[in-house]
Specification:
Number of domains: 8
Largest sheet: 7 strands, antiparallel
Number of strands: 32
CATH class of the largest domain: Mainly Alpha
Helix content: 25-40%
CATH architecture of the largest domain: Orthogonal Bundle
Organism: Sphingomonas horti
Structural class: alpha+beta
CATH superfamily of the largest domain: Topoisomerase I, domain 2
Shape: globular
Strand content: 15-25%
Keywords: DNA-binding, Isomerase, Magnesium, Metal-binding, Topoisomerase, Zinc, Zinc-finger
Subunit structure: Monomer.
InterPro entries: Topo_IA, Topo_IA_2, Topo_IA_AS, Topo_IA_cen, Topo_IA_cen_sub1, Topo_IA_cen_sub2, Topo_IA_cen_sub3, Topo_IA_core_domain
Distance between the termini: 60 Å
EC number: 5.6.2.1
Length: about 850
């Protein structure tokens, strides 16, 4: 019997069907062991020796693998064809060796697609484990461990509120923060554009002003309304004729088939998928045998696949859409061992696979791969110049015509910021023609700051800088979201207060290790290890020799010194120069204290030097702009008409809130995030909660609406129903309330025991089992579940701050502990007393 090890059970089932009775195929369910999260797992003083620990939830599966291995004549390690797949195979081999269950014959096979042909061919070409790839895995894992376990304690002691920092995640976070700084320092510049609506032979087109008073007009040339009106008048009074028509042929070649990063970018642009969701769906398609392996930086396709693609194109279109020669693409990857075949369908004759998101992603992959072998598109770009009689004023119209669509008939690559001015259609124009001028417009514009990063543009930038590797991008972005260093609004990344502060700390005290060049250079060294061009311990030693003393040096500094250094480093953001030239640090509350950065138990904030006499505070993230200058941390909103007590807007450890009156008996209410600018009316509404809607028509008991820990809700006799927004708390009437409560009782709101429940938050796939982890509200408090195992969240951990990795560790620990022992009604029985002799 021959034992084959793969990662997933779906893959195992399919491959066992292909191989026949002599083969037993088992899944490892991803990685089976890792460095335990404790000090000493990597020993730099002993050649970076590593102490590995088996995952608790893999014990049962490893026993099954070991039992089968003892009976097997041959072990075939058939995990994924990349560095992580090589590592999983190595771990399986090492564990079986320890358990003395390793067969005499051990071989490694890899296949790029789960089809019968690909699997059969791979089985005929076995090899040994690639020691260089395993060394590269060890180096990356040790490096990430050493950075995390050395730097995180520094953060916990010197930067209150910080959770942890990772080697690559911190650099990705810096990109997001740097972009936010660019946006904040950007100063909009006014400019005007002048264009005319023209018509020729019934076809309308637009022409913009490019010359005025004999001078060339650039985008920012006309900067005032007065000049714009004068230029508009010149166009209105001028009689324009065509001075020149320039036509240029244009050829557009198709893009190569997808790599991991380009697939993530295009799926984000066209389908709105996150990087992690794209990879999850692609993994399913790969395991179903629909596409080739989805973690790759290669752009080439196998020769047989190219032939199949060309045949499919000829079948779908006429022969003109098939180029004379097959297209060959060259990878830009620096590490040839990790540059596998591009992502493509396993069968080009299959234009659909799966449904829903699976079907949409497959179609995108199929179209891109097929288009990569199609003929180029032929276009004609036309530029028309129109001049008035004096030649001092000129207009220009541009457009393009598709002469032959080629690959564009099937697929066009998406762009983050499309400008389609040149794709407009133009009528046929000749020199001397005088098109009809129908209207002239002068439009005011303002220059725009650079856009915040989307997932697609951030992945693209990381790849351009050589930071991280395609297979890691999804997890990098997920970690930033899980740790709440960033938030995503309208598919764009915005740094949170904690993310900005962490980046400032790392830039000030560990500048080298979050620099783009250093991180990219380290990635190249790790790639050299993969390619056998560098020794992994030497790479680690060079890094550790500088990094360890630096962390020790920062750890010795007093927290007050750290805060003072950050205050100076962040001064341009916290205290920018004022337009009137006054002191930006002058306290707006007392008028003579100096503002400065302070460190608190729950993070950084700005406070007055005259504390406690002056209690002015400002949130760190608020910066020093006009908004921050007017916020004294305690804004009076007005008086309550009923009591005459003052109503304030304040900021506390859990965010902004409103308060009625003073002292211990003052009533307070948090300000929900979906409320815009808070005013007295909104404050009084929030302070009036809970709101009684009225008696239930069947029970007579009151129905109330309020806002709780997890958002707005309805309540009636201990049963609850969720509301969609804060506005619904005040707008929901009796009929709607009764209907929502009835729907909740059927499973739509807070469920009865045994009913399905809505998760409080989706944390993402388990890093090792890939099962979806959910944060749930239970009878005895919040817990996490992966559908198989439930784990209670310790009281010391805030559920809203729980990260994916922390949740996974809780589930692993719970699974390792085994099922809870049931107790009888009387509790555990005491041991029977021994009878006296």
């Amino acid at each position: 019997m021959q034992l084959v090890i793969v990662e997933s059970p779906a893959k195992a089932k399919t491959i066992e069907k292909y191989l026949g009775r002599d083969y037993r195929v088992l899944a490892s369910y991803g990685h089976i062991r890792d460095l335990p999260p404790k000090d000493g797992s990597v020993d730099p003083d002993n050649g970076f020796a590593m102490e590995w620990e088996t995952y608790g939830d893999k014990a049962k599966q490893l026993k099954a693998i070991a039992d089968e291995a003892k009976k097997a004549d041959r072990l075939i390690l058939a995990t994924d064809p990349d560095r992580e797949g090589e590592a999983i195979s190595w771990h399986v081999q090492e564990v079986l060796k320890k358990r003395k269950a390793l067969p005499k014959e051990v071989e490694r096979v890899t296949f790029n697609a789960i089809t019968k042909g690909a699997v059969t061919e791979a089985m005929a070409k076995p090899r040994q484990l690639d020691e260089d790839l395993i060394d590269a895995y060890k180096a990356r894992r040790a490096l990430d461990y050493l950075v995390g376990f050395t730097l995180s304690p520094v953060l916990w002691r010197k930067l209150p509120g910080a959770k942890s920092a990772g080697r690559v995640q911190s650099v990705a976070l810096r990109l997001i923060v740097d972009r936010e700084r660019e946006i904040e320092t950007f100063r909009a510049q006014e400019y005007w554009s002048i264009f005319a609506d023209m018509e020729q032979d019934g076809t309308q087109f637009q022409a913009r002003l490019v010359r005025w008073k004999g001078d060339k007009i650039d985008r920012l040339t006309i900067g005032k309304a007065g000049d714009a009106e004068a230029a508009k008048a010149a166009v209105e009074t001028g009689r324009f004729t065509v001075a020149s028509v320039e036509t240029k042929p244009l050829t557009r070649n198709p893009p190569p088939p997808f790599t991991t990063s380009t697939l993530q970018q295009e799926a984000a642009r066209k389908l709105g998928f996150s990087a992690s969701h794209t990879m999850r769906i692609a993994q399913n398609l790969y395991e179903d045998g629909a596409i080739t392996y989805m973690r790759t930086d290669g752009v080439q396709m196998d020769g047989s696949a190219i032939s199949a693609a060309r045949a499919a194109i000829a079948n779908r279109y006429d022969g003109s859409y098939v180029p004379d020669k097959p297209r060959q693409y060259q990878t830009k990857a620096k590490n040839a061992q990790e540059a596998h075949e591009a992502i493509r369908p396993t069968d080009f004759g299959r234009d659909h696979a799966g449904s829903g998101d699976h079907g949409r992603l497959y179609e995108l992959i199929w179209k891109r791969a097929l288009a990569s072998q199609m003929a180029s598109a032929r276009l004609e770009r036309t530029t028309v110049e129109l001049e008035d009689g004096t030649g001092q004023t000129a207009l220009r119209a541009t457009g393009q015509v598709v002469l032959f669509p080629g690959y564009l008939a099937l697929y066009e690559e998406g762009r983050d910021d499309a400008d389609d001015e040149e794709s407009r259609r133009l009528p046929r124009l000749s020199q001397g023609d005088a098109p009809l001028k129908k209207a002239v417009h002068a439009e005011q514009h303002f220059t725009q700051p650079p856009p915040r990063f989307s997932e697609a543009s951030l992945v693209k930038r990381l790849e351009e800088l050589g930071i991280g590797r395609p297979s890691t991008y999804a997890s990098i972005l997920q970690v930033l979201k899980d740790r709440e260093y960033v938030r995503v609004e309208k598919n764009r990344f915005i740094p949170e207060e904690s993310g900005r502060l962490l980046t400032a700390f790392l830039e000030r005290f560990f500048e080298r290790y979050v620099s783009y060049d250093f991180t990219a250079g380290l990635e190249e060294e790790l790639d050299d290890v993969s390619g056998g061009r560098a020794q992994w311990q030497a790479v680690l030693d060079a890094f550790w020799r500088d990094f360890k003393p630096k962390t020790a040096q920062v750890m010795e500094q007093k927290p007050s010194d750290i805060t003072a250094a950050l205050d100076e480093f962040l001064a341009p953001f916290l205290f920018p120069p004022k337009a009137d030239g006054s002191d930006p640090r002058l306290c707006p509350n007392c008028g003579h204290g100096q503002l400065g950065l302070r460190g608190g138990r729950f993070g950084a904030f700005v406070a007055c030097s005259n504390y406690p006499e002056c209690k002015y505070t400002r949130r760190f993230a608020q910066g020093g702009g006009e908004e921050g200058a007017n916020d004294n941390g305690e804004l009076a909103l007005g008086q309550d008409p009923a009591t005459g007590a003052e109503v304030f807007r304040k900021t506390g450890r859990f965010g902004p809130y409103v308060q009625l009156g003073d002292g211990k008996d003052a009533k307070r209410a948090s300000i929900p995030k979906d409320i815009g600018e808070i005013d007295l009316d909104w404050a009084l509404r929030l302070l009036s909660l809970p709101r009684t809607i009225g008696p239930h028509p069947e029970t007579g008991a009151p129905i109330t609406a309020s806002i709780g820990r997890y958002g707005p809700y309805l309540a009636h006799e201990g049963k609850y129903a969720r509301l969609a927004s804060t506005a619904e708390v005040f707008e929901t009437g009796m009929n709607a309330a009764v209907a929502k409560l009835a729907d909740a009782a059927r499973g739509g709101g807070r469920p009865q025991r045994g009913a399905s429940r809505e998760p409080l938050r989706l944390l993402g796939p388990h890093p090792r089992t890939e099962a979806e982890i959910k944060l749930m509200e239970g009878r005895f408090g919040p817990y996490v579940t992966d559908g198989t195992t439930n784990a209670t969240i310790p009281k010391t951990v805030a559920p809203e701050a729980l990260t994916l990795e922390e949740a996974a560790q809780l589930l692993d620990a719970r699974a390792a502990a085994g099922p809870a022992k049931k107790k009888g009604r009387g509790g555990a029985k005491k041991a029977a007393a021994k009878k006296r002799a």
